[in-house]
Amino acid sequence: MPRTLALSLVLTALLSAGVQAQGLSPIEQRIGDEIKAWQPEAINLLERSARINSGTLNLAGVRATGEVFRKELDALGFKTVWIDMPQAMGRAGHLVANRTGPKGKRLLLLGHLDTVFETDAPGPLWEREGERARGQGVGDMKGGNVVVIAALRALHRAGALDDTSITVLFTGDEEEAGYPREVSRRDMVELAKLSDVALSFEGAITGPGGQAMATVGRRATATFDLDVKGRQGHSQGVFGSAGFGAVYEAARILDGFRQAVVEPGLTFNPGVILGGTDVAFDEANAKGTAAGKTNVIANTVTVRGDLRYLDYAQRDRAHARMREIVGQHLPGASASITFRDSYPPMAVTPGNLKLLELYSQASVDAGLGAVGAVPPTARGAGDIQFIAPIIDSLDGLGASGGAAHSPSEHVDLGSLERSAVRAALLIYRLTR
């Protein structure tokens, strides 16, 4: 087990066993009361934002969703601005809200306005089912955005936002970050350099026994491109003078990865494979075509895959082993592999674990129980990974639900209140 993962799990156990309730101060009690009283309006805000389709490529929808939250932040005294991306990137841009003051740590709060659901996606925009709601992006992560607003509103009502330094950044392309990343995430990185702590409100994960969990680490994401060539010829000559062809070579390589590139926390997935004598892959739209005949040895295979790792050392070991396997060609075949990094790793650091400790203490003091740590392998990629190397970070502070990225995506409406209470108390204590 990687040391960082083991440390995370040990700290989770210690937090769960050792945190004791210290109670809330009068102002903290008021903060919690404000959140509870506003719960019906929080649900209404979630519904209004969810009824707007804001798939990453629906630029107008992303901007419209941003306006819903911008009005809320304006009402709380934040200075808001919309940051456009270059038109050629095909992304809507980001909403930034800021206030500055001399108190406590400088916080950067992260959310995102886009969803994976484009305008033709199946599934309802919003359906209320008692204490649960189903809809596109209700958990990932419009529910998290609402948690941010509910927490900040309660702090404002209690007079606890005065003289604090808090920046809110709701990105418009988290689900499919625009290229080049140096442009689409430039503002986020610059804001992180002006902050001390980053808190991200991706959906919360519920652990065993219903325990709340937060994220102190995430694996990096990357891709691999495997291109294989074979000697085209009559199928009667396969295994002999004509060689093995591209399909057998690709199969050998991929099975070699499966058997020999094995480490805890490391995964690689060949998401698309095309093989034959006439292959075309459309990178921009992630689809392609292949043609061939059963009596002809295939001369081309194209594989595009996903690679996830805990840290750069693990990445480098995986790259070296995969290149070694690729280089062991079958007769009559050749292959090459290239790698592209996407999201950097969010390492499990002492600073991140300290934030979890403070968050868990706030939860216990509010009567909501201790908060554990999500193993880094249990989460996908997220915006916070671009800035976690710069400042202490904690993620997964949003609403809880399930079936994310599917037509059945849903959110537990009661979690809006619970998550907002935890977040507001943490923000209050960090900014004293």
UniProtKB/TrEMBL annotation:
Q: Report what the protein is called.
A: Glutamate carboxypeptidase
Name what cofactor the protein needs. Zn(2+)
GO MF, one term, reads: carboxypeptidase activity
Q: Which residues form the signal peptide?
A: 1-21
Q: Which residues cross the membrane?
A: none
Key words of the record: Carboxypeptidase, Hydrolase, Metal-binding, Protease, Signal, Zinc
Q: Name one Pfam family in it.
A: M20_dimer
The protein's organism comes out as Massilia yuzhufengensis
Which ranges carry the Peptidase M20 dimerisation domain?
A: 216-331
